[in-house]
Amino acid sequence: MTHNELGWEETLWDAGYRVTRQRALVLDAVCAGDGHTAFGDIHLRVKQADASIDRSTVYRALRLFVDLGLVLSAETGGEETFYEVARPEPHHHLVCRVCGSEWEIDAAALQAMFDEVEARHGFAVATDHLVLFGACAMCRTNARSV
C-alpha cells in the first residue's frame, strides 16, 4: 500500500497535525513492510533514509498513526510490537506459540463470537485487528508423534 492510497496527509491535517518529512519516512517504512513489520525494522528503514531521526521520533509518529487509525499495532507474544497499514476491511491473526507461524483470517471467521459476546453481555466488540495465540496443526501433530 502506498501513501496515496491512505489519504494520510488529509487525516493528519483534519486532526490538527502537521505533515512532516519525518512522519512521511515513518509511514513509508511501515508501507515498505507489506504487512506486519516489527518496530525495529521500521526504525532501521527510517535510519537508513535519514540518520538524524531517533527512535523516539519513530515511536511518536507510529503512536500518532495508530491513534488516527492509519496504522494498526499488534502484540504477537514476542518482545516487539508489530505495525501494519490499516485496511478498509478488518482482519485478524492466528499466531502459533510453538513455531511462530502466523496466518491472517478475515473478520467473518470471528463474527459469530462477537455476536455472542454482544448477546450475552450487551457489549459490542469494536476491534478490527485481533491476534489469537495457540498451536498450529503441524506443531500439534508433531507434539503427538513425540
What can you see in these coordinates?
By secondary structure, this protein is α+β, with helices and mostly antiparallel strands. It has 2 domains: 83 residues, Arc Repressor Mutant, subunit A (Orthogonal Bundle), CATH 1.10.10.10; 54 residues, Ferric-uptake regulator, C-terminal dimerisarion domain (Dna Ligase, domain 1, 2-Layer Sandwich), CATH 3.30.1490. Helices cover 47% and strands 18% of the residues. The chain contains 7 helices and 6 strands; from the N terminus they run αααβααββββαβα. The chain has a 3-stranded antiparallel sheet with strand order 1-3-2. A 3-stranded mixed sheet has the order 5-4-6. Helix 3 packs across helix 4 and helix 3 crosses helix 5. The longest helix is centred in the last third of the chain and has 14 residues. The protein is flat. The termini are far apart.
